[in-house]
Amino acid sequence: MRAESPTVGRRSPAKAPRRRIGIDVGGTNTDAVLLEDERVLHAVKTPTTPDVTTGVRNALAELLRSAGGVAPIGAVMLGTTHFTNAVVQRRELTRVAAVRIGLPASASLEPFIDWPEDLAAIVRGEIVMLEGGHEYDGRPLVPFDTAGMRAAARRIREAGITSVGVASVFSPLNPFCEEQAAEILREECPGVAVTLSHRLGRLGLLERENATLLNAALVDLARKTTRAFTDALRASGITAPLYLTQNDGTVMLASVAETFPVYSFASGPTNSMRGAAFLSKRTDALVVDVGGTTTDIGCLRHGFPREANNVVEIGGVRTLFRMPDLLSLGLGGGSLVRRAPVAVGPLSVGYRLTEQSLVFGGDALTATDVAVAAGLLDVGDRRRVASLPPALVKEVLASAAAMIEEGVDRMKTDAREEPLIAVGGGCFLVPERLAGVSEVVHVQHEAVANAVGAAIAQVSGEVDQIFQNLSRDEAIERARRLADAQATSAGADPATLTLVEVEDLPLAYLPGNSLRVRVRVVGEIA
Predict the structure, then answer these.
(1) To 10 degrees, the CA torsion angle through 46, 47, 48, 53?
(2) How confident is the model over 335-375, as pLDDT tens digits?
């Protein structure tokens, strides 16, 4: 396999919007920053609210107060865990019709076969399995059953189902059957939301289908959420376009991103990693992002998060699509501390930290309380934790350090020492020395690195396809053009598009000089 990863140059301030707002909605806090060119002008951290949108409004109001009112804003970039939480918490999900095209193959394992039963019971609507699909070499398995698809579309309409996920065997190689199915569905079911698997996932039918069905279940929520965020901006007097951040550290226009909510699943920790790279001026390092509820550990390569090359589970569902390679630990500033035996997390008080922790007048012992007692942090009323035994404080901090050290070791790919950039509101839990780490790097505005990462995000386009009967250069050029078109439709300025990653893999078992090519481009917001 050949791989090229040209280093992304620093962006020219003249081409970037003069002012940008970045917002990141976490499980505990909603952070917002105002950037002017390459400088962070103002930053705020406010508690996340149960309905999310109110927290965004509060953060915007506080940010604009500190900035002295509304100035011309070029763009607003927002990252949210809203869609991930919906899957994990089994709420606000839409019933979905699953269309699998591949018979007579793939008949033994139906859609939803490996889902947790409680989640499948909510999402599973109609299941349709039809003849069609393609072989691994691009040849049709059997002709696509268009009559069966039309009859199924009528049943879907009569059942009142408004969202459909379509997956066909080897559709990343040849999407013909999926596109035909979508055309029939739109004819028979006006207004239906259709998610096609070849636009989301990679080779691997079940995992690609799972990602497609999760996306279909979230489309209605994504539409409501993006419109609520747009209303929050309008209420704040901001008329700039809204972008949502994605798993790869880039953004899409909200109107485009609401079609693909699964692309925002890991946007929070990804924003933190991009913010860490920007604030530290480093492009290759480990990053630990300690929030109020979880700690996420990842690896920067060329300024972007390293991508996961294997199956990723979301809410118990196995998926395979564009996701960062992350390790999440149940450790954060709001983590509950047990005294006997001593343990930190994984339960957390979350956004109720300022109500329930000892230093803020509550009765729950949290990692924040321990940090205040140890002199690592100065928030709340220190007198309320003065009675904590020094031995307990020391043991709790050692336990947190051991969790982080083990997580860092698991994310490293070799034995060499690497720098570790510590960000997040809970990064006071990261010790100054860790095994396998050359130095622990702290940066200015580290507590709001996630919002900074959102504000600096560029627009991307990615293509991962198999090309046949083309030379290597022709296949890469074809993929590049497709990636450029995708980035432009997502809101990028075509004149600024830069190639950041190319991988090509010859497939000897396929005919026609087959080559699997993955190309990613990034560009400035148009």
Answers:
(1) -50
(2) 999 988 888 888 888 878 888 999 999 999 999 999 999 99
